[in-house]
Amino acid sequence: MRSTVTTGNSGLRLAATRGVRIEIDGINKVYGEGTGYAFEALRPTTVDIRPGEFVSVVGPSGCGKSTLMLIVAGLLRASQGTVLVDDKPLSGPLIDVGIAFQDHLLLDFRTAEDNVLLPAVIRRLPLAPIRERTRELFERLGLTKATNRYPHELSGGMRQRVSLARALVLQPSVLLMDEPFGALDALTRVQVRHDLEQLWMTEQPTVLFITHSVEEAVGLSDRVLVMAPSPGQVVEELRIDLPRPRPVALGEKPALAAYSKRIYDHFARLGVIRR
Ligand SMILES: Nc1ncnc2c1ncn2[C@@H]1O[C@H](COP(=O)(O)OP(=O)(O)O)[C@@H](O)[C@H]1O
Ligand SMILES: [Mg+2]
Question: What is the DSSP pairing of strand 39-49 with strand 22-31?
Answer without folding.
Answer: antiparallel
